[in-house]
Write a structure and sequence with these properties.
With 125 residues, this protein is mainly alpha-helical. It is built from three helices and two strands; from the N terminus they run ββααα. The radius of gyration is 27 Å and the shape is rod-shaped.
Length: 125
């Protein structure tokens, strides 16, 4: 969020214009966060395959060690976690985009409803 001072009040909120600062939001941070969540989904994509490949070579060379059963359980646990993380990141990306959309619509509705209010002296809003 950015604070923008009115043009009739160059000194800031303590100046003589009486308008004070105006708050503005940008959907940029929300959309960047959504993009980051989608990138996590993409980066996690090959992890399960890489994990399977690494374990495949281990199983072939280790024979029937009893630790392999425990290792398989750990691998399955990690695969579930990776899949859950992908799902959460994918869901989060959509939700972040929705926040940006709703916030923009709310700002526009507020702007429209306040259009009849006279602007600060000398301010062309």
């Amino acid at each position: 969020m950015t604070v923008v001072h009115g043009t009739s009040d160059p000194a800031g909120p303590s100046g003589g214009g009486g308008c004070g600062p105006r708050l503005k939001h940008s959907d940029g941070p929300w959309l960047r966060a959504a993009g980051g969540a989608e990138e996590l989904v993409t980066h996690l994509g090959p992890v399960r395959h890489d994990l399977a490949s690494a374990h495949g070579g281990l199983l072939a060379g280790a024979g029937r060690l009893t630790a392999l059963a425990e290792l398989a359980a750990v691998r399955e646990s990690w695969e579930r976690r990776i899949q859950a993380a992908q799902g959460e990141c994918g869901s989060l990306a959509g939700k972040l985009r929705e926040v940006a959309r709703i916030q923009g619509a709310t700002d526009e509705a507020a702007r429209s409803s306040l259009a009849a209010v006279a602007p600060c002296k000398g301010d062309e809003r």
